[in-house]
Amino acid sequence: MRKAVAMVVLLIGVAFVVQGAADKSANPGLDKLKSLAGKWEGKNPEGKPARVSYKVVSSGTAVLETLNPPEESEMVTLYTADGDRVALTHYCPTDNQPRMRSAAVTAPVKELAFTFTGATNLASPDAGHMHKLVLNFDDASHFSQHWTWREKGVEKTEVFRFTRKN
After folding, report:
1. What is the pTM of this model?
2. How many angstroms separate the most distant Cα atoms in the chain?
3. Predicted confidence band at 107 (pLDDT cuts at 50, 70, 90)?
4. Which has the least CB within 10 A, 4, 76, 100, 103?
5. Element (H, E) at 86
6. Helix residue ranges, H only, the chain
């Protein structure tokens, strides 16, 4: 009888530990990004076609974005959880790697806004780089990206609107 009681107590303890670990790993912002997995097609403000794809990688701990804007080189962005925030590193064809982070994220997620926290391989703070990103989630099949480029203190935002392809 004592062994059975001890086993039940042990199983209940393990269940609480597993649930606690699951609660700590939950991040509504990263979960929203995971929901983008697949291929998307869209347009820039001039109506030129753009493509983006998302892939959940590293056992679900990161989301890999590959963006193909019109008439530009491919860009890759990696999103990861950072506590209750989402962090990203953007691998730009301009040969710098801006890092950005969102504010704390709570559900439901309709928007993720990322602000610049630093960069690798940036010649100076005035050198051109991606400085902000805002993702707006309209519904399960539509979202937009608002990328802000900063150079010599001047900012320019380009908006891409996407529709799910698969």
Report:
1. 0.84
2. 75
3. confident
4. 4
5. strand 85-91
6. 2-25, 28-34
